[in-house]
Amino acid sequence: MMSSASGSLSVISGDNQTWDLAVAAIIQAGHRMDDRGWVPATAGNLSIRLADGRIAITRSGGHKGFLTSDGVIEVGLNGEARHEGDRPSAETLLHCQIYEHFPNAGAVLHGHSVAATVLSMVIKEPALYLEDYEVLKVFEDQTTHETRLSVPVFANDQNIARLSRSVALYLDEMKAGYIIRGHGVYIWGPDMTTALTRLEGLEFLLTCELERLKLLPAIPARDVM
Amino acid sequence: MMSSASGSLSVISGDNQTWDLAVAAIIQAGHRMDDRGWVPATAGNLSIRLADGRIAITRSGGHKGFLTSDGVIEVGLNGEARHEGDRPSAETLLHCQIYEHFPNAGAVLHGHSVAATVLSMVIKEPALYLEDYEVLKVFEDQTTHETRLSVPVFANDQNIARLSRSVALYLDEMKAGYIIRGHGVYIWGPDMTTALTRLEGLEFLLTCELERLKLLPAIPARDVM
Amino acid sequence: MMSSASGSLSVISGDNQTWDLAVAAIIQAGHRMDDRGWVPATAGNLSIRLADGRIAITRSGGHKGFLTSDGVIEVGLNGEARHEGDRPSAETLLHCQIYEHFPNAGAVLHGHSVAATVLSMVIKEPALYLEDYEVLKVFEDQTTHETRLSVPVFANDQNIARLSRSVALYLDEMKAGYIIRGHGVYIWGPDMTTALTRLEGLEFLLTCELERLKLLPAIPARDVM
Amino acid sequence: MMSSASGSLSVISGDNQTWDLAVAAIIQAGHRMDDRGWVPATAGNLSIRLADGRIAITRSGGHKGFLTSDGVIEVGLNGEARHEGDRPSAETLLHCQIYEHFPNAGAVLHGHSVAATVLSMVIKEPALYLEDYEVLKVFEDQTTHETRLSVPVFANDQNIARLSRSVALYLDEMKAGYIIRGHGVYIWGPDMTTALTRLEGLEFLLTCELERLKLLPAIPARDVM
User: Fold this and answer.
1) Could you tell me if B212 lies within 8 Å of chain D, comparing CB atoms?
2) pLDDT tens by residue, B163-191
3) Which NCBIfam families does the record match to this protein (chains A, B, C, D) (predicted)?
């Protein structure tokens, strides 16, 4: 049932009924994210909400490009592990926040690219503004390039509960996820295929933005480092 | 009959008589374009005109790096789907325009790279001018590096019919395809192998141009963003 | 027993008892490093200390992305080959220095990336300072991004014994390995999985630092070349 | 006998006696060069001189990343095809020049990377000077990083015979091959493994040089484009 290595994404739909299919989808998405350099070291995390409400999420500490079924655990909407001994990542709360706020959300992805990390550490505005790109049409409700999408940037915080309260204020406006400074992006969709597609679109745009920034007059040193 | 994953391009010739061969060629080209980062999210599209005149083109919305035979539909020269329920991409018209204008065209590729996107959003001229590169010899009629090829850049437009009328004015001069600002490149050839080769040559040159631009004095901010 | 090409890292744990498992882990790590461009030409080296104290290390001269079991030899803590005719790399001493100084060390990796090479040749300070990155948490004892890690940079020296004496002075403070100017990074961990993870984290951060440097006002020519 | 896709380089030794082994080595080297982006479109060429003096070289026009045995033909030291109907690339003369000048040469590689193309079009000196890099030790006779190697840069010329006369003047001094402006690198070795290793080393260094150039004050526009 698993697709071939270069595979199609058809198997990783979020309306899968069984745990095994959800785990397979997460493993495959992890490979894809690792191919692109979006889960360096043990960074990043991936989750799916099954039709019956169970949440499958990557456990703390493993490399997300090399997942096995042991690397995926079940948590409740409160972020707590459903089985004794399972240790969820602290960032689980950010996944659960999406599932709670958006009844429609079926998959959440947290990636950690060079572009997202560098851009978020360089800009001083509270958000990245993306406009005139055709790829903007991959995000929810977008039908034209003649638009401006805002991707909020939040300061990193080891107190995830506190961080999630900042995120909560802006969730309704987010069309292309959000970024945590020096820490990466969060993006979601009704199923894994859509979430991965939106992540790919966002990372493509962040890479374009970083390249364009390199062509601008230099940013003063105090703003970059 | 399909080549191996790392395969040769010998099977994806445009003079294939059967639908299945054309679909296989499109799927393989999609993999290649995805490997190179030229079909991010659901961007890009690929088509082949069979010897009997049928046009096989990627349907709207799917990821072009993970195509299956379901992802390829038949359209007429007017861009309309031949089978009930098939939904072609709006950009189908741009493929059909090439087939109509060039009796010799057997495959059309629309890719969406970072280099093409960034360069087209940065330059103010109506075209990119490529000269002195040995790789220029991969385009039609080119036998030397001592030449200057023009790649026209058109403003993006959600009204594809209107966009195609702008494109029409310059088609005869195009030797290395064209670019839609913030949206990617269109390039073609007598068969898929040639079209892919020309796309690869064009993307290589665009990457070189972007790298050279980074070594120039900075472009004023109002021109870049 | 070997994992698949896109495999999980679960087999390359440092507490392997047998030589064959250690060799397999080294070969697999070499593939991963080669995929990422960290062992160009014949550069780089990889080692594991087995539970029984034997040290398996890549021999001199071969390409570390294409290792076979012949490419891995046994050395003692003094860096000398255990079997007649085996030729260890001169850099073996730097691996053995780690094993001697850190009783806990189970694997040492020397990678040779563009980012490490360029950064080390450009900066004038005696170390790279990494702060505010979430990925800093992948290194030993790090639990927050709100920290500053120092990665010492040593001048290259063909006299490895002399080089190791400079390194010795700073070993206790190193949390993210060290860099040899124009020559690459050294990093380690209790097992191969951890060492590879830390290498990946370090290379990610070095790439971010290089990208940020490109956004700064230009460095005077005398400092760069 | 062929190595696996991610394979070891052990099969592509230049002392192979048979034509089939030489062809297999060329095909495998072509895959490796294509993976790295060094044979875009139909650019680049690869050759091996067998122990019996026969020269196997890639024919004109095909994509060097997707070679089959049909894509490799036999030529004589004068560059002419040994079999009726075979069409060698014009650049065959440059391969034969190496084999004539260096009795020891067993393989010649012509690659076409972004770094080589951009650097050669940007610099005004007649050569690239590489110093202080540890990777310099991969070239013939080099035992230290404390050296400066010169890689001559020749103007491109569609008259290959004329170009080869310029090259001839400097062949004896070349330790790391040479570059043709806007056209790529030529490098060689006693066998394919060594030639590929040296090509990889050279491309690594060219990439480092390009990255360092990006950190310098901007080059005046008239010198870059």
Assistant:
1) yes
2) 999 999 999 999 999 999 999 999 999 99
3) PRK09220.1, salvage_mtnB
Q: Which residues pair with D148 in a beta bridge?
A: D131
pLDDT > 70 fraction of chain A, expressed in percent and rounded: 88
| Chain B residues within 8 A of A215 when measuring between CB atoms | 118, 122, 213-214, 218-219, 224
Within a 13 Å sphere around the CA of C81, how many CA atoms are in the beta-carbon half?
Answer: 13
Q: How far apart (Å, rounded) are the C-alpha atoms in residues B211 and A83?
A: 52
CA pair distance A30, A183, nearest whole angstrom? 17
Task: Compare CB distances from C40 to D145, D204, D215 and report the shortest one's residue.
Answer: D204
Of A121, A156, A180, nearest to C212 by CB-CB distance is: A121
Tokens of C212: 């940020």
C138 CB contacts (<8 Å, ≥6 apart)?
A: A41, A42, A43, C197, C198, C201
* 3-state DSSP assignment of residue A181: coil
Q: How many CA atoms lie within 13 A of A93 on its CB side?
A: 13
- Return d(Cα A34, Cα A111) in angstroms, integer: 9
Contact list in B for residue D67 (CB cut-off 8 A) is: 8
Q: CA A198 from chain center: how many Å?
A: 9
Residue D34's φ and ψ, nearest 5 degrees, are: -70, -40
Amino acid at D141: D
Place of tokens 């036998």: B143
Top pLDDT among B8 and A20 is at A20
Q: For B10-214, which CATH superfamily applies?
A: Class II aldolase/adducin N-terminal domain (3.40.225.10)
The H helix count followed by the E strand count for chain D is 6, 8
As a whole number of angstroms, the distance between CA C101 and CA C80 comes to 17
pLDDT tens per residue, range C133-178? 999 898 988 899 988 999 999 999 999 999 999 999 999 999 999 9
Would the pLDDT of C184 be above 70? yes
Other CB atoms within a 10 A radius of the CB of residue D121 amount to: 21
Q: Give the range among C1-15, C46-60, D86-100, D127-141 with minimum mean pLDDT.
A: C1-15
**pTM score, two decimals?**
0.90
DSSP H helical ranges for C18-146: 19-35, 92-101, 114-122
Non-local (6+) Cβ contacts of D1 within 8 A are D11, D21, D24
DSSP A129: E
Q: Which residue of C has its CA nearest to D199?
A: C41
Q: Can you tell me which residue has the tokens 């540890």?
A: D134
Judged by DSSP in three states, C217 sits in: coil
Distance CA A151, CA A181 (A): 12
What digits encode the pLDDT tens for the residues A77-134? Answer: 999 999 999 988 889 999 999 999 999 999 999 999 999 999 999 988 899 999 999 9
- Looking at the complex, does the CB of residue A158 fall below 8 Å from at least one CB of chain C? yes
Whether the predicted pLDDT of A16 surpasses 80: no
Q: Are C111 and C38 in contact (CB under 8 A)?
A: yes
In Å, how far are A81, C90, C169 from C153, measured between CA atoms?
Answer: 43, 19, 12
Which chains have 3+ CB pairs within 8 A of C?
Answer: A, D
Over the stretch C83-119, which tens digit does the pLDDT of each residue have? 999 988 889 999 999 999 999 999 999 999 999 999 9
- The per-residue DSSP string of D93-160 comes to HHHHHHHHH-TT--EEEEE--HHHHHHHHH--SSEEEEES-GGGGGSTT---SS-EEEEEEE---S-H
Token couple for D22? 């030489």
**Residue carrying structure tokens 């990610």:** C204
Contact between B158 and A138 using a beta-carbon 8 Å cutoff = no
Q: pLDDT at position C9, please? A: 45
If one counts every other C-beta atom within 10 angstroms of the C-beta of residue B85, the result is 6
Helix (H, G, I), strand (E, B) or coil at A154: strand
Query: Reduced to 3 DSSP states, what percent helix, strand and coil does chain B have, rounded to the nearest 5?
Result: 35, 20, 45
Q: Report the run of H or E that residue B56 belongs to, with start and end.
A: strand B55-58
